[in-house]
């Protein structure tokens, strides 16, 4: 019976790896984002009904608050996906008399355009569709639909995502706001563990699939996989002065520590390190422990994004 349940979970793609704190943050973010879109749109435009909140913004809220580090959630995908799709949707409504044909063309062409401009954002398809079948409240706007409500709503949800996610140290939006990265600087990079980006791009071209990960993300993923395979657990000798390490916990338990001092000794019980918490749980606090204890806590080394 257990094997059947496991197979069913794998088939359905059920993943329980996300922490409760992450789930709560995503829930609150979605609520705050849509609430502000509703209030600000009404305040500035006075519109009501379907024109007040394009339904696709609900889908965008899922991405920027539940998957803030995903490739399809980033600013260019968010803005480009919505605005390009809105333009195509309005154009199809105005030029194609048949409603069913116009709706189909709007979504299909929006997908194609997002591919061409490298800004795939799944909710953009709904934005294009709403421009055609959204009713008179939206149809009467013409190309103004791109500005209000689409651009206005997109700006609101973007700013809300930037501010809201900044309150949670383990998540930032956009990803360029993250203070630390798994990608080492050139002087620290271990070439044997890094697959050239050109090879990754060629592999992606071979399988011809769109995934919600950038080439940089994939390079980091492969490097970490190889590192974990080679050294399943950190050893004390890998803990070095001045370097940064994370416990890779999910949600509020996530933390980054920097080794700020050390007392080297051949006796493991006297081989001590002093660390400062520079991100996450216990921020700005400092403590000491043996190098072995720190190695047991650490899961991997990370690097400041801006050196």
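^ structure tokens above, recovered residues below v
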């Amino acid at each position: 019976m257990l094997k059947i349940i496991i197979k069913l979970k794998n088939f359905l793609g059920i993943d329980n790896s996300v922490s409760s704190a992450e789930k709560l943050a995503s829930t609150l973010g979605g609520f705050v984002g849509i609430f502000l879109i509703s209030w600000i749109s009404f305040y500035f435009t006075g519109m009501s009904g379907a024109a007040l909140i394009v339904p696709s913004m609900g889908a965008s809220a899922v991405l920027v608050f539940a998957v803030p580090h995903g490739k399809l959630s980033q600013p260019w995908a968010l803005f480009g996906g919505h605005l390009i799709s809105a333009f195509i949707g309005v154009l199809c409504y105005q030029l194609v008399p048949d409603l069913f044909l116009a709706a189909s063309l709007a979504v299909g062409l929006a997908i194609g355009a997002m591919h061409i401009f490298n800004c795939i954002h799944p909710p953009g398809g709904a934005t294009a569709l709403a421009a055609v079948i959204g009713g008179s409240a939206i149809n009467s706007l013409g190309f103004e639909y791109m500005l209000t409500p689409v651009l206005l709503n997109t700006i609101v949800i973007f700013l809300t995502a930037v501010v809201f996610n900044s309150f949670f140290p383990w998540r930032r939006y956009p990803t360029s706001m993250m203070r630390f990265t798994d990608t080492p600087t050139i002087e620290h990079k271990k070439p044997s563990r890094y697959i050239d980006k050109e090879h990754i791009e060629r592999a992606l071209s071979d399988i011809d699939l769109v995934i919600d990960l950038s080439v940089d993300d994939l390079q980091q993923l492969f490097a970490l996989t190889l590192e974990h395979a080679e050294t399943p657990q950190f050893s004390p000798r890998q803990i070095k002065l001045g370097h940064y390490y994370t416990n890779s916990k999910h949600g509020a338990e996530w933390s980054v520590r920097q080794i700020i001092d050390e007392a080297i000794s051949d006796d493991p019980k006297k081989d001590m390190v002093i660390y400062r918490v520079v991100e996450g749980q216990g921020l700005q606090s400092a403590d000491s422990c043996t190098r072995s204890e720190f190695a047991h806590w650490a899961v991997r080394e990370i690097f400041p994004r801006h050196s």
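The mean pLDDT is 86.
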